[in-house]
Amino acid sequence: MKILREHRARAAEYDALMRDPAAIEIKAFVPARDFQLSKSFYQERGFTVAWSSEASRTFDTEPRAFCCRSFQAASTIMLHLLVQDMDAWWSHVLDQFIVAKYGTMIEPVSDKPWGMRDFAISDPGDVLWRIGQNINTRSHATPV
What we know:
Shape: extended
Largest sheet: 4 strands, mixed
Strand content: 25-35%
Number of strands: 8
Number of helices: 4
CATH topology of the domain at 71-137: Signal recognition particle alu RNA binding heterodimer, srp9/1
Structural class: alpha/beta
Strand order of the largest sheet: 1-4-3-2
Helix content: 25-40%
């Protein structure tokens, strides 16, 4: 009888949780072919290390985070970083000589038709980052 009551109590807790399945955070796992090089790349960009192991490191830019993970073959991945001051990020990237130092790709700043002003930069593992800010408050989402 006691086991049945415990089971019913756990089932009720689960049902209560699933009525409000709000997400707390989403974190991208960024592949790194050369883990040491990628760790240096992100730390020099100003990301702080929140957690680390030999094959994985979580970087933090309060309140957002992502995990850089060692993989033998990195897949193509693109991430978007929404910032308040895109021009400050652009200046930081240029001041750090990222492209020359890491042999990465960079796409200049431009205003996008979807309401963003951004630039793109790849990391040493060919992960494409778009860094930008909203330039207007209109929604540019396409209805589904």
